[in-house]
Write a structure and sequence with these properties.
Elements: H1 4-47
Length: 53
C-alpha cells in the first residue's frame, strides 16, 4: 500500500491553510490602511483649526 494519497492530502491542506491565512492578512492590511488614511485625513483637517493660547 502506498502512502502517496495521505502525503498529497497533507501537503494540499497545508497549501490551502497558507492561502487562507495569507488572504486574511491581505484583507486586514487593506482594511487597516483605509482606516489609517481616514484617521490621517481627519487629523490633517483638524490641524489647521487647533487653538493655541
Amino acid at each position: 500500500m502506498t502512502h502517496l494519497p495521505y502525503i498529497v492530502a497533507s501537503y494540499g491542506l497545508a497549501a490551502i491553510m497558507a492561502l487562507v491565512l495569507s488572504m486574511g492578512a491581505a484583507l486586514r492590511l487593506k482594511r487597516d490602511r483605509a482606516r489609517l488614511a481616514a484617521l490621517e485625513q481627519t487629523h490633517n483637517r483638524n490641524a489647521g483649526t487647533s487653538f493655541t493660547p
